[in-house]
């Protein structure tokens, strides 16, 4: 880090290039909705999207009683998300809470789950999944799903997931997953999946569940010491994979395909997971105290070893991956808590699969700057078109929320064609800057640094930050933009909101530079004249090879 005097001088130079105040905006953003006029409803606790509809859970909504919950259904009409219907339970016994805490959506079906509904006839509480069906007059109550003997301690309905004609409901207290299907007249239990390795003394099967048209994945906890003997050591993460029709007589049933068993030395506890077409992303919490996390990517067609571990661009991994969603086959949306001087306001990051592996592409941060927002507590995606990011907003003792909808390419992304260039042979790294066309004609500037900033640092730009440190390379890229080895590192975005910059490494460069890594990021400013910072990219890497 440079001395304060030099840091101030560098910032003054930057402001000379970017005159005026700074602000942060994210292109392509629309606010889906929040629960109008309500507080402490936990709007956005869960959400799901299918086709042109989005459902959002508000488990503490009070329309049907104290913390009885509600599900808000939105429909996309003429390119805008509009409220279609608010669903509240109409038959709750006194004292029922969180009746719409988890939601799932599939075609004409909507599922809302509660883990705690009083059952006077059974002298206890149980979990329930309420099923709604859409007809010409709207969404109508259709059926309630529950299992005898599954009291509140079973955790029945703590997690639900729907795909095509299947609904999976977890009951982690029972070490069981329940699978339902529609038989033409009602939803019926088709199969119960239990711990496939009970001798391992696992626990909490169904901490999270994810499914696609072929496979079902679920995370579990196992207490195993370093010698593989069950003991009192920290909990380990295990992911079980079930495949539809695998070694079963009924092609609709799921058979146990295998497990992903994380090394005991990692001491990982389970977090979120998502699955799509043989690709599996799994979050593991390394340190429960600090919520430090890792994100592991698997290609199940290649085996049970992770082919890549992802970290956030600035290295902040607190709750990284707390919510995950694949958007198409080559884009992964990751939600997680970040760090800033304002507190853990959170962010979401997209990673895109490239020939160089999965690379961070775009970053989403909240517009609020008062520290009262927890952004990206839940994420979802609709195909490869729209990304949905939910936030919690703390208003004193109350918690509400909001959901933002973004284009799949929402904020500027910076991608490179090569990651390393030889000092002896020389070469060029091309940086491709892509933005939404709303930013056509805006000014862009590519800057660099010799290292990434610490977890809580970076160059603050109001509600966002430029993920670089101010050092000699930063000053060089700033002072020599579009000169020397830098080509088109400052300019205007074209009609598509795109631009290309290049950094040349001359042949015969000093061999003592081998091993140095250079990091670059771009910021986008409003049309020439105002200089307002609209957004920043995540950093790219240029390695100097011998």
What characteristics describe this protein?
546 residues, mainly beta, Immunoglobulin-like, six-stranded mixed β-sheet, 2 helices, 41 strands, 51% strand
What does this structure look like?
By secondary structure, this protein is mainly β. Among the domains are: 4-24 and 414-545, Immunoglobulins (Immunoglobulin-like), CATH 2.60.40.10; 313-382, no CATH class. 4% of the residues lie in helices and 51% in strands. It contains two helices and 41 strands. The strands form ten sheets. Strands 31, 33, 37, 39, 40 and 41 form a six-stranded mixed beta sheet that branches. Strands 14, 15, 16, 17 and 18 form a five-stranded antiparallel beta sheet that branches. The protein has a four-stranded antiparallel beta sheet with strand order 1-29-28-27, with no helix packed on it. Strand 10 (156-163) and strand 11 (166-171) form a beta hairpin. The longest helix has 14 residues, at 4-17.
């Amino acid at each position: 880090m440079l001395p304060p005097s030099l840091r101030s001088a560098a910032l003054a130079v930057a402001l000379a290039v970017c005159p005026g105040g700074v602000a942060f905006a994210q292109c392509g953003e629309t606010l889906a909705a929040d629960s109008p006029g309500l507080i402490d409803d936990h709007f956005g606790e869960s959400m799901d999207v299918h086709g042109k509809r989005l459902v959002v859970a508000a488990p503490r909504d009070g329309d049907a009683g104290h913390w009885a919950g509600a599900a808000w259904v939105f429909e996309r009409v003429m390119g805008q998300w509009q409220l279609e219907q608010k669903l509240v339970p109409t038959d709750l016994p006194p004292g029922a809470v969180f009746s719409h805490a988890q939601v799932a959506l599939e075609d004409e079906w909507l599922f809302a789950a509660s883990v705690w509904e009083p059952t006077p006839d059974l002298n206890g509480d149980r979990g329930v999944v309420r099923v709604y069906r859409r007809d010409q007059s709207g969404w109508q109550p259709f059926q309630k799903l529950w299992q005898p003997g599954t009291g509140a301690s079973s955790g029945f309905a703590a997690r639900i997931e729907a795909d095509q004609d299947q609904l999976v409901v977890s009951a982690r207290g029972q070490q069981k997953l329940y699978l339902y299907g529609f038989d033409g007249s009602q939803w019926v239990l088709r199969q119960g999946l239990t711990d496939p390795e009970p001798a391992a003394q696992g626990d909490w099967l169904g901490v999270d569940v994810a499914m696609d048209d072929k496979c079902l994945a679920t995370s579990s906890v196992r207490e195993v010491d370093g010698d593989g003997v069950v003991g009192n050591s920290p909990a380990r993460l295990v992911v079980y994979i079930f495949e539809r029709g695998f070694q079963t007589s009924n092609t609709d049933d799921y058979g146990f395909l295998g497990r992903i068993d994380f090394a005991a030395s990692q001491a990982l506890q389970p977090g979120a997971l998502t699955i799509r077409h043989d690709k599996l992303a799994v979050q593991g919490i390394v340190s429960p105290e600090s919520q430090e996390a890792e994100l592991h990517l698997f290609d199940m067609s290649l085996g049970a070893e992770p082919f890549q571990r992802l970290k956030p661009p600035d290295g902040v991994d607190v709750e990284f991956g707390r919510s995950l969603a694949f958007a198409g086959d080559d884009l992964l949306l990751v939600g997680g808590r970040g760090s800033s001087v304002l507190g853990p306001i959170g962010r979401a990051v997209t990673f895109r699969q490239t020939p160089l592996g999965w690379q961070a592409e775009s970053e989403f941060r909240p517009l609020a700057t008062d520290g009262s927002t927890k952004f990206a507590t839940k994420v979802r995606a609709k195909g490869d078109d729209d990304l949905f990011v939910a936030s919690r907003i703390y208003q004193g003792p109350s918690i509400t929320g909001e959901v933002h909808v973004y284009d799949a390419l929402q904020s500027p992304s910076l991608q490179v064609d090569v990651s390393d260039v030889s000092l002896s042979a020389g070469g060029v790294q091309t940086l491709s800057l892509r933005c939404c066309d709303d930013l056509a004609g805006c000014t862009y500037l590519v800057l660099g640094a010799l290292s990434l900033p610490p977890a809580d640092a970076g160059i603050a730009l109001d509600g966002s930050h430029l993920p670089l440190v101010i050092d000699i390379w930063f000053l060089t890229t700033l002072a020599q933009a579009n000169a020397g080895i830098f080509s088109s590192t400052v300019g205007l975005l074209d009609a598509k909101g795109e631009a290309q910059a290049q950094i040349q490494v001359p042949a015969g460069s000093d061999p003592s530079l081998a091993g140095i890594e250079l990091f670059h990021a771009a910021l986008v400013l409003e049309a020439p004249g105002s200089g307002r910072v609209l957004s920043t990219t995540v950093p790219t890497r240029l390695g100097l090879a011998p």
